[in-house]
Design a protein that fits this description.
The structure is a single chain. The chain is α/β, with parallel strands linked by helices. The chain has two domains: about 160 residues, HAD superfamily/HAD-like (Rossmann fold); about 70 residues. The protein has eight helices and six strands; from the N terminus they run E-H-H-H-H-E-H-E-H-E-H-E-E-H. It has a six-stranded parallel beta sheet, with helices on both faces. Strand 2, helix 5 and strand 3 form a beta-alpha-beta unit. Helix 1 runs antiparallel to helix 3. The two termini are about 35 Å apart. About 45% of the residues are buried. Keywords: Hydrolase. Belongs to the HAD-like hydrolase superfamily. This is HAD family hydrolase.
């Protein structure tokens, strides 16, 4: 892993089959690419060939600054109501980046919880309304950068542990569009830190893991992306200064969006050049 945007060529990885994101071709206007009827959620590429490179963005902590708000809410409001008085409390790094339904399962297994799962999820849903609807801000230049990638023919996915309605709140507020929305709640398998969500999203974009770039911020998200075989760029910010982001191929600071975008540009360019070179050699 390096802490700069100038990196070596992404290494190839084996892209094996994994469960699909269920019905990612939702009726939401935020996911706009045409998809073949035989494979819901799959972005159709020219002549049915694999895309030369695809890009996957995490949402929380990458595109929007929600993690700081979530950490305060979890520490001061949610966990005190969920865990028994005087019991051990988790390091927030343990659960950041996970789907909130799986956070409850994790807490129930490792800690002493005093509410049921429905009550737990209601606490998160109530908090999410104000965080996404009123408080978060979009990373500077993100809308234009995603639009530029898509305009250049690079399929782009949003791969998030947040449920679709939270995602759509963000997309609507900031006028964001992606080729594929891949929420963990719609995935038939374990979410982050397991790699399946990324593997499915990359496949549904028409790509392969050795031709994919993923941008993440949490230790769980970075681990999921890296395990999938995608070239992984980690975003460092105040909320994750002490997090282990070592599985990433490189780390950039969220306070410097231009460096992040250059890192994505560099990695996608390297992959495209590698694909082009391999095609020429095979001829």
């Amino acid at each position: 892993m390096s802490e700069s945007s100038d990196s070596d060529a992404p290494e190839a990885a084996d892209g094996t089959d994994s469960p699909q994101v269920t019905d990612s071709a939702n009726t939401s206007d935020s996911s706009t690419a045409d998809r073949p009827d035989s494979a819901p959620g799959t972005v159709q590429t020219e002549a049915g060939t694999a895309a030369s490179v695809v890009v996957c963005f995490d949402m929380d902590g990458v595109l929007v600054d929600s993690e700081d708000y979530w950490h305060v809410a979890e520490r001061e409001e949610i966990l005190p109501r969920v865990l028994a008085d005087g019991s051990r409390t988790p390091d927030l790094d343990e659960v950041t980046g996970m789907y909130y339904g799986e956070i409850y399962d994790y807490l129930a297994e490792h800690y002493e919880v005093v509410v049921d799962k429905d009550a737990f999820m209601s606490l998160y849903e109530e908090t999410a309304e104000s965080i996404y609807g009123e408080r978060v801000e979009l990373l500077a230049g993100a809308r234009e950068f995603v639009a530029d990638l898509r305009g250049e023919g690079v399929p782009v996915a949003l791969v998030s542990s947040s449920p679709r309605d939270w995602i759509e709140t963000v997309l609507d507020r900031f006028d964001l569009e992606f080729d594929l929305i891949a929420p963990a709640e719609e995935f038939d398998g374990p979410g982050k830190p397991e790699p399946g969500l990324y593997e499915a999203a990359i496949r549904d974009l028409g790509g392969t893991v050795d031709r994919a770039v993923a941008i993440e911020d949490s230790a769980n998200g970075v681990l999921a992306a890296a395990r999938s075989g995608a070239y992984t760029i980690a975003v460092r910010d105040d909320h994750n200064r002490d997090s282990d982001l070592s599985p990433a191929d490189e780390v950039v600071d969220r306070e410097d969006p231009a460096a992040l975008y250059e890192a994505v540009r560099h990695s996608t360019r390297t992959i495209r050049e590698s694909v082009s070179g391999n095609s020429g050699n095979s001829g």
